[in-house]
């Protein structure tokens, strides 16, 4: 133990460490790892998006404050545990929730508040671009946001000189380099896998389209430069070091890898970058990433075509809503408990209530729930209304109540995944789950295995999440051998001794989920009615 401590102290002093910071939808997290990929220290900052003028957004002040607070908490942990003031690290990487729209003018000023992935306001633009490119352009994608602004004749559009994602913005702010990782880029504009860059023919098509509407913008000039995993994409500037660490302890000159999206860091954190592997990230939203062996036979609006951080094709099923409603109900139970004069730790509350789902009827007793805080593209809802419904014949008890909220968290995802597995016959050997839902052992895995009808594993590293995955990408840039692929680096170095717990789907649970999903599909009319009539 003493030798291990000395080894970590030496790594900190020599800068043989890697830092990953991820800006998720509810939390910003910083993770510092050593050369054996173990977490040395971490810090976090809780935040929430806001609905302003019809758009889901985070303001720039919160972005910077959260970044600084997460870094500061991680730095303080280093000080407390090792008695050292963090002054340098070996490499840094930033990641964030994918997609969205951050548009800047020639003075580098943000033109409109950051529009996040959660906005479903770009339906017309997404459909027109999908038809034009014969390639699925989801509503969340940056190019859909830009084109919708053009269609809506928004005043800011002629002034746009640069468009990026949240991760791309942070990287630019701290390095001065307008860079983006290929995985994050693939959620902005379609990628040509043969060149691992934006699709040139589609760039030309888009330029012609907007020119016909009177705009002289050149798309290739607006988008950040694409990098693949392993490439250096800049260094921390003096100004960037002051932003990240206002105490001025952090030194400039640290190399940065390309910024990535949370989908890419999820793939890395679960060692899911090889073909026939997949992972599911569970949080406020939920998405599955399946690394494909070949292209799909046709365009599906439910399936995004993106890439791994090293440029391999991925079928992505993304649902806007997942655990938000479940968390709201757990908060209500906590309020009740406290009103009774009791105190309970959050982990204990989650564990007790989620485990009740294991005692439930296989189909959740005929209950029905939609955790739609926002619109849901997969099921055709432009807005959301969280909804719980039951009939007089439903078996209404706590176990079924908890199971239905777990089932519905996977509901929209299941519809998209069925396209891959049942219509395209995509082979999936296993799925790895990560996110807060899996911190409670067994339950989340068991429910997901039932939904996907595939073995689901959770690794001991899964709790670290995307920030740890980003730190791994930073380490890969710094420490890889000359010709070492990301797949081999993960397999042979990062995950060689990592244990995973695999749960196979239970036949009764599979049948129960299939019964539920038919009820879920039929009940979408109820959800639509709630949207139409509940203001």
UniProtKB/TrEMBL annotation:
| Entries under CDD domains matching the protein | ASKHA_NBD_FGGY_BaXK-like (cd07809)
Q: SUPFAM superfamilies, per this entry?
A: Actin-like ATPase domain
Give the superkingdom in one word.
Bacteria
For the keyword Transmembrane, the answer is no
Q: Which Pfam families match?
A: FGGY_C, FGGY_N
- Carbohydrate kinase FGGY C-terminal domain location is 279-476
Q: Which UniProt keywords apply?
A: Kinase, Transferase
Give residue ranges for domain Carbohydrate kinase FGGY N-terminal. Answer: 19-263
Give yes or no: UniProt keyword Transport: no
Q: Which family does it belong to?
A: Belongs to the FGGY kinase family.
Q: State what protein this is by name.
A: ATPase
Task: Name the gene behind this protein.
Answer: xylB
């Amino acid at each position: 133990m003493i030798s291990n401590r000395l080894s970590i102290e030496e790594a900190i002093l020599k800068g043989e460490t890697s830092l990953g910071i991820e800006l998720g939808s509810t939390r910003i997290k910083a993770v510092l790892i050593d050369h054996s990929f173990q977490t040395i220290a971490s810090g976090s900052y809780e935040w929430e998006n806001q609905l302003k003028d019809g758009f889901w957004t985070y303001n720039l002040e919160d972005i910077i404050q959260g970044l600084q607070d997460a870094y500061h908490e991680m730095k303080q942990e280093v000080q407390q545990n090792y008695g050292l003031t963090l002054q340098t690290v070996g490499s840094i990487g930033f990641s964030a929730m994918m997609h969205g729209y951050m548009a800047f003018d020639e003075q580098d000023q943000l033109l409109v508040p950051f529009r996040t992935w959660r906005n479903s306001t770009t339906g017309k633009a997404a459909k027109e671009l999908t038809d034009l490119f014969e390639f699925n352009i989801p509503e969340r994608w940056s190019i859909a946001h830009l084109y919708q602004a053009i269609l809506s004749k928004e005043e800011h559009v002629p002034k746009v000189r640069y468009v990026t994602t949240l991760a791309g913005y942070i990287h630019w702010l701290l390095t001065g380099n307008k860079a983006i990782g290929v995985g994050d880029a693939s959620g902005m504009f379609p990628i040509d896998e043969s060149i691992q860059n934006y699709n040139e023919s589609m760039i030309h098509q888009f330029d012609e389209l907007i020119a016909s509407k009177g705009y002289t913008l050149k798309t290739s000039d607006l988008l950040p430069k694409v990098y693949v995993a392993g490439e250096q994409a800049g260094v921390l500037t003096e100004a960037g070091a002051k932003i990240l660490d206002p105490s001025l302890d952090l030194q400039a000159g640290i190399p940065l890898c390309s910024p990535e999206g949370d989908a890419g860091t999820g793939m890395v954190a679960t060692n899911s970058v090889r073909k026939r592997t997949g992972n599911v990230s569970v949080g406020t939203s939920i998405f599955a990433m399946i690394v494909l062996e070949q292209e799909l036979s046709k365009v599906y609006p439910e399936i995004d075509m993106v890439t791994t951080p090293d440029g391999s094709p991925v079928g992505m099923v993304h649902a806007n809503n997942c655990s938000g409603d479940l968390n709201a109900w757990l908060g209500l139970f906590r309020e009740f408990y406290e009103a009774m004069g009791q105190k309970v730790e959050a982990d204990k509350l989650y564990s007790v209530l989620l485990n009740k789902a294991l005692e439930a009827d296989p189909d959740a007793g005929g209950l029905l729930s939609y955790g739609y805080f926002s619109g849901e593209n997969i099921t055709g809802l432009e807005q959301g209304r969280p909804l719980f419904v039951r009939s007089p014949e439903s078996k209404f008890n706590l176990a079924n109540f908890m199971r239905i909220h777990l089932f519905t968290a996977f509901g929209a995802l299941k519809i998209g995944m069925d396209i891959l597995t049942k219509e395209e016959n995509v082979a999936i050997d296993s799925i790895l789950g990560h996110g807060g839902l899996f911190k409670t052992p067994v339950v989340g895995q068991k429910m997901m295995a039932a939904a996907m009808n595939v073995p689901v594993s959770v690794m001991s590293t899964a709790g670290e999440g995307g920030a740890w995955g980003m730190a791994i990408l930073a380490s890969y840039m710094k420490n890889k051998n000359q010709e070492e692929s990301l797949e081999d680096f993960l397999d042979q170095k990062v995950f060689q001794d990592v244990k995973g717990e695999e749960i196979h789907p239970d036949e009764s649970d599979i049948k129960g989920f299939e019964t539920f999903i038919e009820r879920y599909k039929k009940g979408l009319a109820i959800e639509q009615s709630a949207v139409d009539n509940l203001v």
